[in-house]
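Researcher: We're teaching a course module on how sequence relates to structure. For the next exercise, students receive a sequence and then see the predicted structure as tokens, so they can try to spot secondary structure elements on their own. Here is the exercise chain.
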Amino acid sequence: QVQLVESGGGLVPPGGSLRLSCTASTRTFSTYNMAWIRQAPGKEREFVAVVSRGGDATFYANSVKGRFTISRDNAKNAVYLQMNSLRPEDTAVYYCAADRTLLIYSPAYTYWGQGTRVTVSS
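Model: And here is the predicted structure for the students to work with:
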């Protein structure tokens, strides 16, 4: 079982930046691929980015490529999402998710956090 806790959400103007963090309560953090998934109001969950177990591979949704960066620190059981050049359409609840399978462009992860809300508005 993996428990995930996100932090770092908030209100930011268009063009601004935020850094989301997620910490995991497991002794085997390095065996999980870690992802960020988001859900906008009235929409289905959408894959944002994933980082592989060792941090050597990352994949991004086309909508965030070049603006968002996912990273992890296995020594701290943490994964991060640096979000730059934010747009109103990035407004959503952002979830941290974990799976031992590397799921690319899919939101079907096994373990989920409670989410942190990001609102991009002037």
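Model: If you want an answer key for the exercise: The chain has a mean pLDDT of 96. The CA atoms of residues 13 and 48 lie 20 Å apart.
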